[in-house]
Design brief:
Layout lengths: L5 H15 L2 H11 L15 H18 L16 H6 L2 H115 L41 E6 L5 E6 L3 E6 L15 E6 L12 E6 L5 E6 L4 E5 L5
Antiparallel strand pairs: 1-2, 2-3, 3-4, 5-6, 6-7
Length: about 325
Amino acid sequence: MTSITSVELNYLVFRYLQESGFTHSAFTLGYEAGINKCTIDGNLIPPGALITFVQKGLQYLEMEANLSNNDVEMDEDFSFLQPLDIITKDVNQLRQMIKEKRKNVQKDRDKEKDKDKEFEREHEGERGRVREKERHEREKEREKEREKDREKEREKEHEKEREKEREKEREKVERDKEREKQPEELADRDMVMDQEDKDVVKNEENGTSVVGPEPMDIATTSAPASQEACEIPNSDVTILEGHTSEVCACAWSPTGSLLASGSGDSTARIWTIADGHCKSGAQNSPLNVLVLKHVKGRTNEKSKDVTTLDWNGEGTLLATGSYDGQARIWTTNGKP
C-alpha cells in the first residue's frame, strides 16, 4: 500500500489553509515547511484535496469497524459513525459501538413490527366491522326487496278483490235494469189485455164472438200527416262559399247564429248567419267568417282533412278532429 510523505501532507495542509482563507497561517506553514522548495506541481492538485483524503480515511475506518473477523456474509445494515468517534477511538471501540447500535436498531425494529401487528389486528377488526355492516346493509336491502314483492302481491290481491266487487256491482246494475224493465213490460201486456177484454165484452154485447189478432207493439212516435215530397225554393237557400275542397261536417252552435264547417282543405270555418230570410243564390254581401287553419303553409295532403267537429253545451268552444292525428279546441274568435 502506497503511503503519503510528510512533504505531500504539508503541501495538502498548505493548500487547505490557502483555500480556507487562512492567509497568515498558510504563509507561516509554507515558510517553515519550505513549500516553495518542493517539487510538487500545484496544478495537479485538485481543490479540496485534503478534505477528500480525510473523508476517504474516515470511510475506511468506518468500513473496518463494520467488518467482522470471519468471512461470513453479513446481513446486518451498515452502521454509520460520527467523524469524531472515528478519530478518537480505535477499531475495537468502534466495533463495540456498532454492536450497541445494531442492538438498539433491532429493538426499534421489533417495536415497529409489534406496532405493525397491532395495527394490522386493529385494521383487520375494522375490516371485519365494515364487512359486517355491509352484510347488514345487504340484508336490509334484500328485506326491502322482499317487502316490495309482498306489497305487490297484496296489491294484486286487492286488485282482484276490487275487480270482483266491480263485477258484482255490474251484475247488480244489470239486475236492477232487468227489474226496471219488467214493470214496463207488464204494464204493456196489461194494456193489451185490457183492450182485448174490452173487445171481447163489446162483441159479446153485440152477440158476436170474434177472436182479435195478436197484439202489436205500441208506437211511441206519430207518423207525419203527409209523406209528400216538399220542394224548397232557391230563395230559401244560402250558399256559403270559401272552402276549396269537399265539406265533411257541419254543426250549428247551440246558443247563437254560428255555423261551423269542416273541409278537406285542412280548414274549419265559423260562419255568422244573420237572422231573417236567405237571399236568392249565392251571398252577394260577404259573410262574417273565421278560418281555422289546421296546418301551416301550403299542403295538398288528404290526411289533413277536418272530418268532425262539435260545439260544447254553452256554444263557446268548438272541437275539431283532423286526419293529422290531432284534436283541437277553438274559441268563437278563432283562437285555439
